[in-house]
Amino acid sequence: MAAATLGSSAGSASPAVAELCQNTPETFLEASKLLLTYADNILRNPNDEKYRSIRIGNTAFSTRLLPVRGAVECLFEMGFEEGETHLIFPKKASVEQLQKIRDLIATERSSRLDESNKSHKVELSQQPATSTQLPTALSSNPNGLTQHAGNSEGQSSNPPSAPMVTADSVILKVLRSNLQHVLVYENRALQEKALACIPVQQLKKRSQEKVSRARKLDKGSGFT
């Protein structure tokens, strides 16, 4: 509830941050971390040009921000502008606006991390204490079969159960992260944008020319 309240209050000052808050906790924390890195680099090095541009083809940007709802919009609200191959933070952009959006994201991130830590502590406190059991003494019957002490009929005890996969499992976190990356390729808008940059007709024409030359060189071939 607290995170939702903060998200709505941030929305009154920044629609982009409010939209960013609609993502899952894991996605929000990962994207917000990168957004804060971009903002802090500029604030700490205001005269360094290399921190004022983000290459759109950068792996971190394309996988951790581009598919995340509201993430790129946060960069635009900070003052970044879209270039041909980069997002640029121009010299005319307001550093105060950058600081404002950065602080809204940082406040929301801190709140969610605090909630996550509190929830984790509550879960640990609710777990029943496990009693330490000494290994059961073994005895051998006259027939040479090994039995557990106290089990006169020689029946084997139940095998230990496999450890359960919890919501905080590292494997699940990796799977969720990979799923977000895969979904990038299912984004229709990005597919259309990519196709607009690819000379499809020119590539088809070249391939047809190569097939035609191959047929002339080998008339008996089955090129299609």
From TrEMBL:
Give start-end positions of Basic and acidic residues composition bias: 109-123
Q: Which CDD domains match?
A: PUB_PNGase
Q: What GO MF annotations does this protein's record show?
A: peptide-N4-(N-acetyl-beta-glucosaminyl)asparagine amidase activity
Question: Polar residues compositional bias: what residue ranges?
Answer: 124-159
| Positions of the PUB domain | 26-102
Q: Name one GO cellular component term.
A: cytosol
Q: Where is this region: Disordered?
A: 109-164
Q: What is this protein called?
A: N-glycanase 1
